[in-house]
Amino acid sequence: MTITERDIMGGLAKGLAVIETFAADRPRQSISDVAAASGLDRATARRCLLTLAHQGYAEWDGKFFTLTPRVLRLGTACLASMPMPAIVQPALDALSDRIGQSTSVSILDGAEIVYVARAAQRKVMSIALMPGSRLPAYCTSMGRVMLAALPEAEAQTRLEASPRPARTPFTLTEMDQVMAEIARVRAQGYSVIDQEVEMGLCSMAVPLMNARGQVIAALNLGRAAGPEPMADVATRLLPELQAVAAQLRGLLR
Amino acid sequence: MTITERDIMGGLAKGLAVIETFAADRPRQSISDVAAASGLDRATARRCLLTLAHQGYAEWDGKFFTLTPRVLRLGTACLASMPMPAIVQPALDALSDRIGQSTSVSILDGAEIVYVARAAQRKVMSIALMPGSRLPAYCTSMGRVMLAALPEAEAQTRLEASPRPARTPFTLTEMDQVMAEIARVRAQGYSVIDQEVEMGLCSMAVPLMNARGQVIAALNLGRAAGPEPMADVATRLLPELQAVAAQLRGLLR
DNA sequence: TATCTTTGTTGACATATCGCACAGGATTAC
DNA sequence: GTAATCCTGTGCGATATGTCAACAAAGATA
After folding, report:
1. Three-state DSSP state, B39
2. CA–C1' distance B2–D23 (Å)?
3. Disulfide check for B196: which of A58, B112, B171, B224 has CB 3.0–4.6 Å away?
4. Higher-pLDDT residue of B23, A48
5. CATH for A5-73 (2.30.30.90, 3.40.50.10840, 1.10.10.10, 3.30.450.40)
6. Which CATH superfamily is domain B82-249 in?
């Protein structure tokens, strides 16, 4: 069965688009703000917002709308239903203790990585990362590892569909550079990033596979850039990451 | 302006209800499952699910639907737009280091608390807590502190609207017991819980206020039940919690 | 002040959607 | 093998919703 035009509920699609217009930099929006951000008619945006308010997902002071914690229910049911966080967290904690670095597990959603679990040691990044946090895939070690597991054309399509700003002077932004690096990652089985996401931050990642060998997530460690070359750190800590990946392989589905 | 019947979009409300039926214990659902769980007609549930799939919020193998990580976007926009996690995290980390216990900050949503930030030291609880995680308010230290800040009738209404299972032999479940404890918490300004959420787990919480004195969140510490009576722990660590609460008071709005 | 924009709200009409009822297919019971 | 039971997909009429246009009120501009 294929999805036909008749089976789509416009109201639901529009309402979800309205929720997504509430980004971090625009937590309070008027009806017109939302209409402009979503491309909807003001009358339609108004009805979406009033519906959200009526259902408890938004609050309204007569002028501005704000989302309520209730919208977290929509997403966290997904995270909670994913066995992955619960399964990987103990292994992550143990690994983090052993090597003294922050470790994380993320999955790929389009051209972004989504953190599902994290064991933080020291604050190495300027922004707070937590389960549900997103970063672009093109410039992160976990993103490159997961992109490398896709068919090359698919990876390219995803990357082309989203912007690739130069977050630091070291960020690879050109498509052929990124694709070449992804090919290298695919060949060597892991990815090392040196200050492409943020100055002073290095990381390396390996893929996490399920029992059938499908890459379903990535595991990484992050550390502050220091005197020791990242390549040396990589060869020293790679076995640790790979050991955890192997241990988890039988547990994930 | 008041919300009239005409301004509500049924389709959006139904679709959100459909998303919420995907709980942790039912990550994969057929059309009929969702219809039964949401009370919707099967035809309507089907249209909602197909719409969610078409928009990328769900996946469909022809029989079962699963939510995709994309639904996390809906909720995390709210968490990210909330300045609270970023503001409280450093203070939380410092406090956690100083006292050697796990600390958390949560807000109240209906009769549930929602974690917004956490600094974990040791694993003291059987389930993994992370930002976005929910626990019932009636049996948690942070929940009682925030309920105590509401008008008594409001707190009672919220508690009566949701079940209060005896999670351990120590859990207060009767309305008058819980309300009496909340009154005590209101009078003394903090809450201590001894193994009411889970056996072996104790916690204490203080309210977090903004500059205007409104209670907007709660701060707690959790520790394993040990030989030292929880009352002694409380008097020893209460000043630490209160100091952080005072420090944060000027920073939150 | 007068004029021009922007915003929230309402009404009308074409169209999409709801919920019901039913058909076909799959699965189970016997 | 057949009946019974469930599930999914699909017309259909009644109703709800989206779009467009108009309008009043509030700011903004001059």
Report:
1. coil
2. 20
3. B171
4. A48
5. 1.10.10.10
6. GAF domain (3.30.450.40)
